[in-house]
Amino acid sequence: MANTGSLYDTPKLGFGAMRLPRTKTGEIDIEQVKEMVDIFLDRGFTYFDTAYVYTGSEDALREALVKRHPRSAYTIAT
Q: What are the residue boundaries of the structural domains of the chain, listed by start?
């Protein structure tokens, strides 16, 4: 079967952004999220899941993923 880049070709592990690491002040630890995202992508995984109700997760993934990696490198669901 040809590699069409469809959802069926997506590795079976996803990066869920419901509970991201936080600093002592309660803010999402963007530097740690960046490291986690980089490791996840380096291992060949590409699927990220976020949602508006996961407080701050969309902004965190924008900083850690969207602004730092080419759009063709990942699939994101929100």
A: 33-78
